[in-house]
Amino acid sequence: MRMLVTAWAWPSHLYAMVPLAWAMRAAGHDVLVACQPSLMAVAERTGLPCARVGSDVDSVDMVRGYALPTRRFGTPEAAASANGGAPRALRMFQANAEAMVDDLVRLAREWRPGVIVHDPTAWAASIAAAVAGVPAVRHLYGADLVHRARRFLPELLAPMAERHGLDDLEPLGAATVDPFPAGVQVEVDYRPTPIRYVPYNGPGQAPRLGPSNRPRVCVTWGTTMARVDSRRFLAGEVVRALASPEVEVVAAVTAAQRTLLGPVPEGVRVVEGAPLHALLPSCDLLVAHGGAGTSLTGLAAGLPQLLVPQLPDHQAHANRLVRAGAADLLPPDEADPAELRERALRLLHDERARQAAARLRQEIADRPAPAAVVPWLERVAAG
Predict the structure, then answer these.
(1) How far apart, in whole angstroms, are the C-alpha atoms of residue 326 and residue 314?
(2) Could you list the residue range(s) of the whole structural domain that residue 274 is in?
(3) Tens digits of per-residue pLDDT, 192-204?
(4) Is the pTM of this model over 0.85?
């Protein structure tokens, strides 16, 4: 069988699907990753065959326009001028779908996959699958926030669907694969297929930190905020606030973020380019921005989390973890050094938060591994 995997050009959305894609490849199936030009280098590093489709969209600028308003950073100009209609993030997904759909339809017709697996915000996949007459399977990367906004989808997808002769498109596809623990997932009106979250954070050298006689706190800020607005990359401020004899602080950054991190106090360890899942099992607390991939990787390691969200989806994910008792949320306007230090130390000694994080880790571990989901995907393609 052939499986076409597609995501618009945002690395973390593709990362979530890589373990299942490799499970399909290991089971003997052909797998092809289709993405926009700016994601090709990332896709190639997964080791899977890739195909370039469509053109790039300035998604970074669109994300910049819907960052959460704060006293500290102000209200983004685009967000201030928005007036009703679909949420701004959905307009970004629509723009990327428009940029991808015609090429993706051609690729699906030429390559003839048995199933298309896609990031839930890569809407071009639903249209390509319908035109090719094959099932589209959404692979979630976190909470199903698109399902909550599904009333907007028919209008947003209508021009593309009509262009390709479709008058009855199911935007949520034939099935959904869900790695997010039920304890933090939003309520939906369908039955997803659970899959174990196997972290894939890209290639890199595993850090060798060794044991510590103090609680170890990992500070990381993902890859989004540094691209959107360097002022919102708060990892350096957090590191300097937390550094003390009471804890060992490890800053996990990309090589490009090292300059943004700024000066770090003596004793802080800076790890560049390491896969996050190789670092977190040796830690006791995660302090981060609330991105779905980072938070899920933290949950897979069983860590309580202190989250400082600055985008709507980051806040939505942070809220789910807080409700489950595994995290604390600190708005950026309140994230001064004293408050950061107090909240982090409180979480480190919060037995209920540790137990909640451990329960979520166990729920992730109890889900079927990607290899066990392959037979189900074969049945979806056949049915």
Answers:
(1) 15
(2) 216-365
(3) 999 999 999 989 9
(4) yes
